[in-house]
Design goal:
101 residues, mainly alpha, 4 helices
């Protein structure tokens, strides 16, 4: 059973998510005040970026992120953003398989 412990922990990390498991480690290493400050800043930055995207969609009269990219960046800019998103997702997949391997 002790030989299987790293594999079980790795599967638990994959199922529950690294962010949830890292939260307790963050609280332990940095303290409550700094962790809450970092969480608050992260939440404010997320709210700010989403509101910028919503305002841009309303001003450009676009219904989706793809339409917004096409209207603002043009055909080649939209293609560049799509290729960037594909590489980002491929990187996540590769990292996931490395973590499971």
């Amino acid at each position: 059973m002790d030989n299987d412990k790293p594999y079980v922990i790795n599967i638990i990390n994959s199922i529950i998510g690294v962010a949830i498991l890292a939260m307790s480690s963050t609280f332990n290493n940095t303290g409550i005040t700094l962790t809450l400050l970092i969480l608050t800043i992260g939440a404010l930055l997320t709210i700010s970026s989403v509101s910028i995207l919503i305002r841009a969609c309303k001003e450009a009269n676009s219904d989706s992120y793809s339409d917004l990219c096409r209207q603002i960046l043009g055909k080649y800019g939209k293609l560049f953003v799509e290729i960037g998103q594909i590489f980002y997702l491929l990187g996540i997949i590769i990292g996931y398989y490395i973590a499971l391997g």
